[in-house]
Predict the structure.
Amino acid sequence: MNVRSLGYVRIESTDPQKWLEYGTEVLGLMVAPDMPEDGNVYLKMDARPYRFAVYPGEVDRLALCGWELYDEADFESARQDLEDAGVSYETGSEQECSNRRVRELIRLQDPAGNTLELYHGADLDYAKFVSPLGIAEFETGFNGDMGFGHAVLPAPNLPEVHAFYRDVLGFDDTDYMHFKFSEDPADPGQGLNFMHVDNPRHHSLALYQAEMPSGCVHLMLEVKSVDEVGYCLDRVLEKEIPVTSTLGRHTNDRMLSFYMATPTGFAMEFGCEGLQMDWDNYTPTKSTLPSIWGHKFQM
């Protein structure tokens, strides 16, 4: 199975208008011009029609992540891989595929209950990205082939979930961390697996050994300059949005970033200068320190 990138997310919200304001006035995303006026909020950041779809619901949560496959042959091979592994899935309807702007999709759950979609044949609408805040571009690769960023998902049963993404979906390991939050030698701590797909991002997915009612630990968006990170931090402070982690630079992917609250309860990492890797000459690592400097978390 050849997963290429994190293509889109769907977010359930009790008040999608909050995401419209947050996405445009804080993150600098654009209202997607080629999507229907159907009561959902669609936010665009590159040549893809949209990356964030926020729809009305009874709870606030990350509903699912959409993962892009290479082509139709790989999509059919993915179906067979899932069937061989005994993993159930459902095929997306014609209407769902039209809404996602993809040719075909299937939907399934990982062993932690996180919902994901595998798809191929994504549209490119080539509509010019015009940020309402003047951001020139986000780091998503050529025609968005690196995906919009990364997702960190809850995985209380971490070994099982990690094995599913590695052995069934074909993700590869990048790094591993293990955290303890007390001095108690009996504290088992919590693990964090970083995983990459077939693009240069250091990681497109991380799995955190914890429960999260919002269905997500954080999402990440990457811009091209440190100034854009600073401008965003200024906007966050001006609007009194909680900063969940101060500015800092991570050890494993060298991302210079800060974290803020979103209207859905999970965090958003906003950063720049993340590493782009040569996977043919890489050995997975185990990091004992999450950041070189900064990143003082305030949960």
Notes: The mean pLDDT is 96. The first strand starts at residue 3 and ends at 13.
